[in-house]
Amino acid sequence: MTIAVSNVVVVGYGLIGPRHAHAVNNCPSTNLVGIVESYLTEEKRQAALAEFPGVKFFSSVEECLESGVKIEGAVVCTPNHTHYAISKLLLQNNVNVLVEKPISPNVEEARELKRVALRHGVKLLVGHHRRFNPYVMATKRHLHKCGQIVAVDAVWCLKKCEEYFEQAPWRRSKEQGGGVLNINLVHDLDLLQYFLGPLSEVYASPVEKTRDPSEDSVEEGAVILMTFANGTRGTFIVCDNVVSPANFEMGTGENPLIPQIEDSTDGVFYRFFGTQGSLSVPDLRLFHQKDLKQPSWWEKICKEHLDEDLSSIPFALQMEHFGNVIQGEEEPTCTADDGVMAMNAVNAVIESLDTQKPVKVLNA
Fold first, then answer.
1. Which of 9, 109, 150, 277 could cross-link 104 (Cys pair, CB 3.0–4.6 Å)?
2. Within 101-228, where are the H helices?
3. Using one digit for the tens of pLDDT, what is the confidence trace for 211-266?
4. Is the pLDDT of residue 94 over 70?
5. Whose CA is closest to 345, among 228, 232, 178?
6. pLDDT tens digit sequence for 28-39
7. Residue 312 CB neighbours (<10 A)
8. Which sequence ranges are marked TM in the entry (predicted)?
9. pLDDT of 283-312, one tens digit each?
């Protein structure tokens, strides 16, 4: 059977761009035809050429579109505040787009991108690639075993180094969509809504700043009370300036730049509490009393390890999906509406931090 192959460019070649380029290059249904980067150093160009011989380089999306190279898909992984303009230009030129999260720091811009994609008959996907993570897929498959989820406890805490901010100064800027809320928390709020349905209200309190006191400096974290539309309650602690193994990256090993912890029980970042059991992630321990007619605190709780194949690579699965979407074989797993729902949740957290009050989360 012949596999249809789509030509794809990667727009942005900073921290995450090379990983997307590898995913495009290694996917049987996509062909890496170009890299768009306005600030590409000669060293990075030569490194890319060594890995992707024959790939074309462009300094702008306009140059890429005018080059005559046939482009059917584009992965946009530029700084957050540029997502809207770049994605809109590509969509207007009938290019299917996979845009890194957040789809845009501005929700109205995100909704406009959805409208542009519909007008031009092309697909718009949001790169919440963790939906393709094997730990996430396993959680999604087994969460029903907990019965009705009453509460969830979530954590994302680690220590970002100064080099991380020096490499891309926009990461320090609220105005440019930087900070742990827009860059990191958005992932988890997408996943929690993927598991539990939409958030209806959040109430956030900031953690103490210890890094940069300037007015435009980004938040270092927050403690968040969450209410979901289905009645589930939860807490979330997020902070990027503490030494901790309790975060998605260290728990799952999904980012090759961040060492995975040896014992997954040391890095638990989600705990789901239900009427029939509790599930922790990433150790995938299910606590239950399924053999009892009436679960009770007077009876022993069973601990079961969910035996799952955790070897698949999220970026690879996401790219395979993107190729299938371009060919019309699948519908997007993470749509513009999903991206907007995640951003609405983040924006509600930011508003709650500003007002020091509970904030309702808008619908997509």
1. 109
2. 107-120, 134-142, 162-167, 180, 186-196
3. 876 666 788 999 999 999 999 999 999 999 999 999 999 999 988 889 999 998 99
4. yes
5. 228
6. 999 999 999 988
7. 11
8. none
9. 999 999 988 888 899 999 999 999 889 989
Per the DSSP assignment, residues forming a β-bridge with 35 are 10, 57
The b/e string for 87-115 (b: 16+ C-beta within 10 A; e otherwise) is bbbbbebebbbbbbbbbbbbbebbbbbbe
Rounded mean pLDDT of the chain? 92
pTM: 0.85
CA 240 to chain centre: 16
Nearest to 185 by CA among 209, 213, 219, 208: 219
Q: What is the phi/psi pair of residue 257, to 5°? A: -85, -15
Superfamily of domain 131-310+343-360, CATH level 4: Dihydrodipicolinate Reductase; domain 2 (3.30.360.10)
* Whether the predicted pLDDT of 8 surpasses 90: yes
| Candidates 3.90.180.10, 3.30.565.10, 3.40.50.720, 3.75.10.10; CATH matching 6-126 | 3.40.50.720
Distances (CA, A) of 278 to 67, 142, 224, 268, 330: 55, 11, 21, 13, 33
Q: Count other Cβ atoms within 10 Å, centred on residue 217.
A: 16
Are 267 and 249 spatial neighbours (Cβ–Cβ below 8 Å)?
Answer: no
Amino acid symbol at 364: A
Mean pLDDT of 147-164: 95
Contact 211, 158 (CB under 8 A): no
DSSP result, 7-42: EEEEE--SSSHHHHHHHHHH-TTEEEEEEE-TT--H
* In the chain, domain spans: 6-126, 131-310+343-360
Sheet with 302-305, strands from edge to edge, namely: 302-305, 285-288, 277-281, 270-274, 149-157, 233-239, 221-228, 199-206, 359-360
Beta bridge partners of 32: 8
